[in-house]
Fold:
Amino acid sequence: MKEIFILAEHRRGEIRDITFEMLTKGKELAEKTNMELAVVLLGKDVKEHAKTLSQHAKKVLLIEDEKLENFNSESYQKVLSHLIKERKPLLTLIGHTSFGMDLAPSLAASLNIPLATDCIDLEIEDSALMVTRQMYGGKVNVKARLRQAESYLVTVRQATFPAEKASMNGEIIEIPSPLSEEAANKRFIEYVLPPPGGVDITAAEVLVGIGRGIKDESNLPLVEDLAKALGGVLACSRPIVDKGWLPNDRQVGTSGKTVKPKLYIALGISGAFQHVLGMKNSDLIIAVNKDPNAPIFSVADYGIVEDLFKIVPSLKDKIYELKAGKA
Amino acid sequence: MDILVCVKHVPETAEADIKIDSTGKTIEKAGLVFDINEWDDYAVEEAVRIKEKLGGTVTVITVGSEDANSTLRKCLARGADKAIRLSDPKFEGSDSYAIAKILHKAIKDLPFDLIFTGAQAGDDGYAMVGPILAQLLGIPHATMVKKIELKNGVARVNRELEGGLEEIVEVKLPAVLTIQTGINEPRYVSIMGIRKAMKKEIKVLGMTELGLSENEVGEAGSWIKIEKLYVPPVEKQAEFLDGTPEEIAAKIAEILKARGLV
Ligand SMILES: Cc1cc2nc3c(=O)[nH]c(=O)nc-3n(C[C@H](O)[C@H](O)[C@H](O)COP(=O)(O)OP(=O)(O)OC[C@H]3O[C@@H](n4cnc5c(N)ncnc54)[C@H](O)[C@@H]3O)c2cc1C
Structure:
């Protein structure tokens, strides 16, 4: 029986959510096409992870090796190409994460098997693979077909599928590591944790998030005043941190913080998925953007298609009026 | 240190009204403003900074039509020494894999210690060209790089992971690094600088000069074939508030009050 592989992603002792999300999609595909779902787990001393994963799939293919202790695309690529050549899965799913983005493209090129990255959906029709992905910062969806092949590789966007719940009692199959030596050209040295201190935006009840639409650093006081009026804190999209206008502990998104305040006001933020994943679970989202087609409006509860510089001062005044009226 | 930087000329779409064209397979390009891909801008700046510190050369390379010259000139104005444009009507329809193959042919005989690409392109967002190019060249790579230290034939780099975490890895040179935004602050390019760069030569190479065959490029040489573009279905649509700014502000204030947020 042909297999579908899910590459388990784990870091610093934890299985990452994307693994369970891919399992949801993988299970659906395997059932539809009558294939077998297998989780591939590489690492050092990861039997506990293997046990956890065996509750989610028929098979866990476990390869343990000291040389796989930390993620290293060079060693991972060697092991995976060995496994893919040997077992010829129709499809291998890898997360579109810092891990998968470092691994999947060179793996695909080395095996010359087609790869589509950052997919939000996929379908198998006969043995052809169709994928859905996004372009232009989420303004357009694309349906694409991969070149006909015996084996395909796909990286999957985070938080696109719900996480799979444990429902199985799968088998753990230990496979000897094909690695004979440490990676020759790439070496993991250490993790660098974000510096502690600063403002904890994850603890704030009200966040005013600003994006590139704020245009200039000199406009910061204006939005700071609004945040103050609301008793909230300023947060931002990535370009604001890249420009050095706010420190990086204020960044919301995949490479920043995940927040869930009672109120998130997005000002001049387009709504790229990397940002949205960090704030979409806020209780109430209000977005102000000049562009009626900005993707942020599909996660917002309320949308205002207007110049933020017209809305912000009026809103601040109204809030103070309300507060004064209350007093 | 000789550094090659692969750059892409892309439309700016964050604020633009995007229309799918009549073929349904691409967008209408007319009226869109094109510029260097945001990530590549940081890559070029990083290369120029290394050159200024250690000496050597910076060469920028793109796959694109004549329109892409403006992006190459911007890179020259920023401090790149040479510019190469790979262009052929047959390249039309190439995906990232085919683009990497085209770049590989142009690069394999050039002298280099490092190759930079952007971590991804802002238009199609595949994030594939850099690491595939590394594989084709048989050299190591590191993606999403936010800091680089060079010593003794090794690049010690910080890779960005999720949630503010980074990792330090070492790769042997020559290597491909894909550059993440925020690694530096790209310098301002003056009109004068661009004008001066107008005089510099841009070397143009086509399919035959590169020794590529038709089935290696375009749709035939690609992994991915686009079938159709469509406007994303709305899962949840915001309720739009309208009126004058004062009226809108009053409506927002009411909503916040009703929820006990003010
Ligand atoms: C690996 C990786 C990780 C990333 N991680 C993150 C992350 O953690 N967080 C993050 O935010 N991004 C992240 N990004 C970047 C992300 O892809 C986007 O580039 C970024 O979120 C865009 O920020 P923005 O919305 O502020 O800017 P843009 O996309 O440029 O949008 C600006 C918006 O402002 C609007 N606007 C302009 N002027 C006005 C005005 N006067 N009034 C009202 N609206 C106006 C425009 O219509 C536009 O929609 C990451 C990218 C990569 C590749």
Notes: The pocket of flavin-adenine dinucleotide is lined by residues A 137, 211-213, 237-239, 251-256, 268-270, 272, 274-275, 278, 288-291, 294, 307-309; B 14-15, 119-120, 144 (CB under 6 Å). Chain B touches chain A through 85 residues (CB under 8 Å). Chain B has a mean pLDDT of 96.
